[in-house]
Amino acid sequence: MDKGEDQLLKDVTQNEYKYGFTSNIDTDFIAKGLNEDVVRLISAKKKEPEFLLEYRLKAFRKWKTMEFKEWAHLKIPKIDYQEIIYFAAPKNTKNLESLDEVDPELLATFDKLGISLQEQKILSGVAVDAVIDSVSVKTTFSETLSKFGIIFCSFSEAVQNHPDLIRKYLGSVVPIADNYFAALNSAVFSDGSFCYIPKGVRCPVELSTYFRINAANTGQFERTLIIADEGAYVSYLEGCTAPQRDENQLHAAIVEIVAHKDAEVKYSTVQNWYPGNKDGKGGIYNFVTKRGLCEGNNSKISWTQVETGSAITWKYPSCILKGDNSVGEFYSVAVTNNHQQADTGSKMIHLGKNTKSTIISKGISGGKSHNSYRGLVRINKNAINARNFSQCDSLLLGDRCGAHTYPYIETNNSTAIVEHEATTSKISDDQLFYCKQRGIAAEKAIGLIINGYAKEVLNKLPMEFAVEAQKLLAISLEGSVG
Amino acid sequence: MLEIKNLHVSIQGKEILKGLNLKIGFGEVHAIMGPNGTGKSTLANVITGRDLYDITEGEIIYKGKNLLAMPIEDRAREGIFLSFQYPVEIPGVSITNFMRASLDEIRQYKGLPPMAAGEFLKYFNEKKNLVEMTANLAKRSVNEGFSGGEKKKNEIFQMAMLNPDLAILDETDSGLDIDALRIVAQGVNKLKRADNSTIVITHYQRLLDYIVPDFVHVLYDGIIMKTGGKELALELEEKGYDWIKDQGKA
Ligand SMILES: Nc1ncnc2c1ncn2[C@@H]1O[C@H](COP(=O)(O)OP(=O)(O)OP(=O)(O)O)[C@@H](O)[C@H]1O
Ligand SMILES: [Mg+2]
């Protein structure tokens, strides 16, 4: 690498987070710290039914007995759970009839992020459930959706209006004791989204939720539950950007998906939490448990993720392929820069006959970052004719970053076919010169090359998201060189 | 258009070009020939700005400007185009996107707005036909899995898209079958204007039957050892390079 390109790499590495601002929305806090009373208080503030309080308390008691196991390739600073505020809601949360009633500060925040609700509403036909901090503020399109019998609302609303569904499905895919952060989330989850697609219904629009951490020192614990009943189909999008913070913020979400017989769920995320500054200060700690259960025969769940943010990412969207002929897919682009650390991948658990899974993972690392793929493919005894194909590619920008691949394969049935491919590459000087010789400046060239590299995954995203994701990739690695 | 004066270039301490002089006027076609490893590609790379080399002496003036002080992409935007001897693959980047980015950047440099999508596609198809590029090939990623000949065709297609003022064709003929050679050469000729210039680097007289040069230069021992008209190419084909060396010494 020559000098000019070295400088360029530095520029990228020093590219400041573009969404770093704070909005001045009135926020309702409870005191920081975590104990049984806080759990009770959260539940009471949200006027939850008894069963849910019990669920939270059970989770809290379990969590107290657990310890975080450091098995991932991550250096995680000690988190003081008593320093975190477990509930913060924008004060203005009465039900709103139109966008005119929404806090103008809030609307301005969305505008800065380029997610104008009005535009979303008018132009794209995307139903938006905007979540700022912990409480859902506005749901659009819910009327259209209700004609199909589709329920798409905040988790809290679902608790009030559809307690039976919550009771039946909450924790059915990610049990309380699944892992440390799952237990924590189950005890203190604030809000999130709920989605139910009834039998035989194809959801006519992409369902979309924007999450955003906003209040200082507020750990955010979203809870998302998506259920596709027999023969149903839904494509669900989640995207987020967070304002700049000096102190690290904990983010421990749970997403559960259930796909019944013949149902299909596509779940897409673009994740852009604040990654910390160029010296590795600040940033979001993102510990997420995402899991889908292909409950019925011929069901299908696909995860597509574009991960560019967070100081630490710990995330393994998984599929349990229980139904015969069920299909699980995982498509991922994970970008790390500066001091970011990502340990991400997928688990595919094959239980049913003729189950199929695909894992395509593209890691891109720059700066001094570390990017690990960790994947588990498990074929159980009864999973006759199970198939898996995994491909894990790493692209390195510069020579101070690291990429690691940890594929775990457990096969307990001799009819299984499991394939794993892995590559590591760099953006070559030849490629850059070629682009520049065509008048394309280095920054743009790298954007092009990276988007080309990640194309297989980006192509899986719905159109609206693909465009946003492409921009985001270019922004997070603007002008980088190998 | 281009004037190279006393150019000395070395790579890893080894001097490749040793005081090369070359002057190219508007509208002229110059052929550069010479044995393997004499520095023909090096010259093309230095003109376009590849930074692998140490330029120890000399200057290059392009359209009255000091070319060596210009960044690579600006040289391209100022109308210098290189058809690469070994075009590189850019996986996942479609030729359409690549050319879109390229044209947009060049237009922006010239203060022009980006082309509208419809206009771009029309232009793209027009140029595609000029070099008889198949629709199938145009849809693929830049050079990814292309055969040697397909890569060269793609280079000339890009040249057609960018319509350069100074085109340098580095062994564009090698790897082309007879039909492709004719198509590519005709493409180059169609792009010829009264005021644009071409440098054709080749080992074979055959290409020069199609693209007729005003001058033929022999690059030998780091300098232009001999310059002649198109008949020089024929002579070289017949006699090889040794006699030039002897003449040079004489
Ligand atoms: N990156 C490099 N490192 C070391 N030597 C190099 C490098 N690039 C070129 N050279 C050397 O410089 C000399 C000139 O190479 P160049 O590619 O310019 O030759 P050429 O005239 O184009 O040859 P050909 O006809 O085979 O294409 C050769 O001896 C070559 O080995
Ligand atoms: Mg050469």
- End-to-end C-alpha gap of chain B: 32 Å
Query: Kindly, what is the distance between the CA atoms of the first and last residues of chain A, rounded to a whole number of angstroms?
Result: 7 Å
Give the mean pLDDT of chain A.
79
Mean pLDDT metric of chain B: 92
Polypeptide structure, described:
The complex is a heterodimer of chains A (482) and B (250). Chain A is an alpha/beta fold. Chain A has one domain (22-426). Helices cover 25% and strands 33% of the residues of chain A. Chain A contains 13 helices and 24 strands. Chain A has helices spanning 3-13, 36-45, 50-65, 104-112, 117-124, 142-147, 155-161, 163-169, 180-188, 429-437, 442-453, 455-458, 463-476; strands spanning 27-29, 88-90, 127-132, 135-139, 151-154, 192-197, 207-212, 223-228, 233-241, 249-251, 254-259, 264-272, 284-294, 300-307, 312-315, 318-321, 327-336, 341-344, 347-350, 356-365, 370-379, 387-396, 402-411, 417-426. In chain A, the strands form 3 sheets. Chain A has a 10-stranded mixed sheet with strand order 4-3-7-9-12-14-17-20-22-24. In chain A, strands 13-15-18-21-19-16 form a 6-stranded parallel beta barrel. A two-stranded antiparallel sheet of chain A has the order 1-2. In chain A, strand 3 (127-132) and strand 4 form a beta hairpin. The longest helix of chain A is centred in the first third of the chain and has 16 residues, at 50-65. Residues 1-5, 8-15, 91-96, 118-127, 131-140 and 211-218 of chain A have low confidence and may be disordered. Chain B has a single domain (2-89, 147-246), classed as P-loop containing nucleotide triphosphate hydrolases (Rossmann fold), CATH 3.40.50. Chain B has 10 helices and 10 strands. Chain B has helices at 40-48, 72-77, 95-109, 117-130, 135-139, 148-162, 178-190, 205-210, 231-239, 242-249, and strands at residues 2-11, 14-24, 29-33, 54-62, 65-66, 80-83, 166-170, 197-201, 215-220, 223-228. Chain B is globular, with a radius of gyration of 18 Å. Chain A binds chain B through residues 2, 4, 428, 430-431, 433-442, 444, 448-449, 451-456, and chain B through 48-51, 71-73, 75-77, 81-82, 84, 87-88, 90-93, 97-98, 101-102, 105-106, 109, 141, 158, 162. The structure holds adenosine-5'-triphosphate and magnesium ion. Adenosine-5'-triphosphate (ATP) is lined by residues 11-12, 16, 34, 36-42, 52, 85 of chain B. Magnesium ion binds at residues 40-41, 85, 170-171 of chain B.
